[in-house]
Amino acid sequence: MLLYAFSFCYNPLLPKQLEKNDIVQTCHWFERKTSFLGSAPRFPSNLACGKRKNTWSVVTCVAVPQKKATIVQTTSPKTWSPDSWRNMPIKQVPEYPDKDQLEATENRLKKALPLVFSGECRRLKEQLAKVARGEAFVLHGGDCAESFSEFERYGGDNIKDTFTLLIQMSIVLMYGLRRPVVKIGRMAGQFAKPRSSPYEKAKNAELELPSYRGDMINGPEFNAQARIPDPVRMIQAYHQSTATINLLRSLAGGGFLDLNRIHDINLQFVNETPQGKRFLEYANSISDALAFMKSCGIQADSPNTRTPEFCVSHEALLLPYEEALTRYDEETGKYYATSGHFLWVGDRTRQPDCGHVEFLRGIDNPIGIKCGPSLATDDLLRLLDILDPENEPGRVTLIVRVGAGRVAEHLPRFVEEVRKEGRQVVWSCDPMHGNMETSKSGYKTRRFENILAEVKEFYEIHRQLDSYPGGIHLEMTGQNVTECIGGMMELEESQLSQRYESPCDPRLNASQSLELAFLLSELFRKSL
Fold first, then answer.
1. In which band, very low, low, confident or very high, does the pLDDT at 315 lie, cut at 50, 70 and 90?
2. Is 144 known to sit in a ligand binding site?
3. Is 444 annotated as contributing to ligand binding?
4. What's the Enzyme Commission number for this chain (predicted)?
């Protein structure tokens, strides 16, 4: 017997109020085998379910505008389409005053070339599967939010410097961990940011305006006009992402970071720092090892030493942009978000019954889930049921962000329940978002000591639970900014104003990032 659940959900992106003649009923079938270790499937409490022959079937009838009722059957257990998220409740999506302009922008992007290709996404998933098995490590880093103005000011040098820094960090980690390092940049799409409040004030001022939500949505300038959401910004973000990916492909494939020229892989202003000098020692050791291999007749110029693999990622926040760049892959019969290789759902938008999770469940890219202190264990398991019904290694990365001093409170319950369900996931530590504070001068900042403390706690809890801490997720830049306090360079709160460039959250600078890589490498190496 089938039972029915009817849901009519508010969504601010619908072009008009639904009328009776616009409504069609679409049946969404959900069929799921019993869970991997025999525990019962988890469904939202508002769904009615009927059990028959060891399967679960649910029919949901939803109201949608007729022009959006494009239904495509995918390998996902219930019907999904790139626009099915529009039928769900949704958070952190702006109200665009000009709906016609929004629709025109979406149509332009639907005709645009993909930024990444499905085969690259599958390759990344294979690499992340190795991380899930404890055979590799993932380094994930880049800007809090990419900026139109910073791109124009640096002319691409900021991208080159952050890329170079990530490669340096990966070399340090590979040297210490004796494992391959999967390299993913928060680049070429990280233009939208969720905000804790819809309004914000200027530093030490009373004037309040709508919050800045990233250059893809509105402007950082503190005036009313700049804060109006403008859909045309999605086009500029797409073009900048295209330029960024072209530059990254050229850097990765053009011999710029050939390990046989490892002494050239260093940022100029880091050279004279303790971290830069220490990296030079690593470079000397690697050069000696490559020379020894050559003298033994062993090939030392393979593609792995000459061309580093590098992928791009961002938070899948602005779903009109993501939907418009979603493409069907004829070879596999699956959908891919071609806006980036890896997408994640944030701590503020990971509700199992809402639009962001609905969108991510239908694409075949590897995806991440931000796991903060407010995430209930049962909701985490429901998310895994929805987003990874086949328990595919490399599909899901759980990015834990709870704050220094709170890891022991939350990480064990995540790890133990996920393991109990037999799930194969990547465990990554985001030591940035749980350690934010506001300085006396009004700048948002983070303390290096707290970032390091959370990483150490994350590693130690995994060691105690006999689990593998497979990655780190950082907000960082290759520029010599002054946004985070501390580190070996002993940046003080009074120095924040010297070069605070982030329009959103503070980033580790190059020296602090490299220092963290050395400390993390030493921490892991002790257990080898």
1. very high
2. yes
3. no
4. 2.5.1.54
Strands 199-201 vs 444-446: parallel, antiparallel or unpaired? unpaired
- What ranges in 296-436 are assigned the alpha helix state H? 303-306, 319-324, 355-362, 377-387, 407-420
Label residue 52 exposed, middle or buried (CB < 10 Å: 0-12, 13-18, 19+): exposed
433 in a known ligand binding site: yes
| Annotated binding-site residue? 379 | no
The neighbour count for residue 274, using CB atoms within 10 Å, is: 14
- Cα 348 to Cα 370: distance, rounded to the nearest angstrom: 9
Q: Is 454 annotated as a binding residue?
A: no
pLDDT at 299 (0 to 100): 62
Give per-residue burial for 165-198: e unless 16+ CB within 10 Å, then b: bbbbbbbbbbbbbebbbbbbbbbbbbbbbbeeee
**Is the CB of residue 283 less than 8 Å from the CB of residue 527?**
no
CA 151/CA 310 separation, integer angstroms: 20
How many whole angstroms separate alpha carbon 279 and alpha carbon 404?
28
Residue 498 φ/ψ region, left for φ over 0, alpha for ψ in the -120 to 50 degree band, beta for the rest? alpha
Q: What angle do CA 328, 332, 333 make, to 5 degrees?
A: 50
Residue carrying structure tokens 């900048």: 240
CA distance 21 to 214: 37
Radius of gyration of the chain (CA): 23
**CA atoms within 13 Å, Cβ hemisphere of 410:** 22
Q: Where are the alpha helices (DSSP H) in 191-318?
A: 233-253, 274-295, 303-306
Report the C-alpha gap between 388 and 390 in whole angstroms. Answer: 5
The tens digit of pLDDT for each residue in 22-48 reads 333 333 333 333 233 333 333 333 333
> Angle at the Cα of 151 (from 280 to 229), degrees rounded to 5?
140
The dihedral over CA atoms of 109, 113, 118, 121, expressed in degrees to the nearest 10, equals -70
| Alpha carbon distance, N-terminus to C-terminus of the chain | 55
Any known ligand binding at 28? no
Please tell me the distance from the alpha carbon of residue 78 to that of residue 27, in angstroms, as a whole number.
Answer: 9
Burial tier of 498 (Cβ tally within 10 Å: 0-12, 13-18, 19+): exposed
* Number of residues that make up the chain: 528
Cα(480)–Cα(63) distance, integer angstroms: 52
125 is in an annotated binding site: no
3-class secondary structure, 257: coil
pTM beyond 0.90, yes or no: no
Residue 183, beta-bridge partner list: 139
